[in-house]
Design goal:
The protein is an alpha+beta fold and about 290 residues long. The protein has a single domain, classed as q2cbj1_9rhob like domain (Jelly Rolls). It is built from nine helices and 14 strands. It has an eight-stranded mixed beta sheet. A four-stranded antiparallel beta sheet has the order 6-13-8-11. Strand 3 and strand 4 form a beta hairpin. The chain is globular and about 50 Å long. It starts with a strand and ends with a helix. The model has no long low-confidence stretch (mean pLDDT about 95). InterPro entries: Phytyl_CoA_dOase-like. Its cofactor is Fe cation. This is Phytanoyl-CoA dioxygenase. Pfam families: PhyH (PF05721).
Length: about 290
Amino acid sequence: MSVKAYRYEEGKFKVTPETKADFEDKGYILVKNLLNNDELKKIRGVLDDSDVIKKYYYDMDDGAERKSRMCLWNQPGNDVTGMVARSEKVAGTCEKLLGGEVYHYHTKLMMKEAYTGGRFMWHQDYGYWYKNTCLFPDMMTVFIAMDPCRQDNGCLQILEGSHRCGRIDHQPSADQMGADLERVDMVKARCPHRFVEMDPGDALFFHCNLLHTSSQNDGPNRRWAFLCAYNKASNNPVKEHIHPLYTKLDKVPNSAILDCKVDWDADSKAFFTQKKRDEYWEDFGKRSSV
């Protein structure tokens, strides 16, 4: 079955009671054309063949002889990608869906190259973020397709409504955290399994406890996705960790994406380097085994 979708039109799209009810019941909303063609062209121009991405990306081993690449930064910054994360149609929509002020938790570019891109195991984002002492699941992610996302190149898969199951136990596996598969199979029997096929510019707004996965890229086309994660201001982590504590988010109008003249302001981004990632993952494994 297909995924129900809303369509974004500037000045017309609003989070209505129906929209919020869909998010709370299903754990997500799909918004078509969140980024228009001009915005998408500008953002892809910044990301494609970027020296910044090349400097800071790292590999994610999927445990099945494939790898994807990831580039992650903690602060939105004042450049083009920062305007996306700070825009009303991204951050402001998250505030309406979660019912309160949010701040930028991190942004990442996830890159699955043709024929080589790795899978991501069934997991909840809160399976990671719970360990960072965010006490409540008042968090979410906006997955924005940069390329066509299809079944053959590893589109997102979700278990609709699975966020209402609460947090499921996770354990490290390869370079990832995987949810308890016995529990996932139980949830599959109750929650519809959806393949979220998306066109460039489409966005999936999803709850941090929604179970999701994606397969390896076995197709001839890459699958790049731009993801912005947010935490509710009232859910400030108890302890400092790799992602920011509450930092007030200076939202900008949607027009700022096209108006921005700065392609990259790398010094403002607080990139998550390979070294930091290795240190975090070692510590994460210790905490997960307790």
